[in-house]
Amino acid sequence: MAMSGGKDDGAPMMEMNTTPLIDVMLCLLIMFIMSIPVATHSIDIDLPVATPPTDTPPPIDPVKNKVVLTVNNEIMWNGTQIDGQRLLTTLEATTHMDPEPELQFQPEPNASYDLSAQVLQIIKASAVTKFGFVGNEQFSEFGK
User: Fold this and answer.
1) Given this model, what pLDDT does residue 67 score?
2) How far, CA to CA in Å, does 75 sit from each of 27, 104, 110?
3) How far apart are alpha carbons 67 and 89 in whole angstroms?
4) Which residue(s) pair with 76 in the sheet?
5) pLDDT for res 69
């Protein structure tokens, strides 16, 4: 930026001094920037709810427990879906109870025979002593 100091002949300077003008403009600019409201635009997003961990064992009834096999190849323990390993640990926990609760086995009519065989092997491996089949009357018309 060039600066004029006037002429050597002693004549007055005829140019406008813009330094105070620039200072005032910068102060006004800063004041305008500070007076602008903060952007408060927001977008509402529904985030998924965290599911509790599935490590909680299914409840064990101290009198009787029912294992149901569904058509969709699900193993249900008293109405709660579990997998084969969880079934084994739950059954082993029931064998340590005094008195041992009764275990009822009830596959649905169109449940997989392979799943039934696997679950019966798990029950046998758990050393359950009070075991019974229930709901066999639904198969009384089998093959007719």
Assistant:
1) 93
2) 75, 13, 14
3) 14
4) 68, 81
5) 92
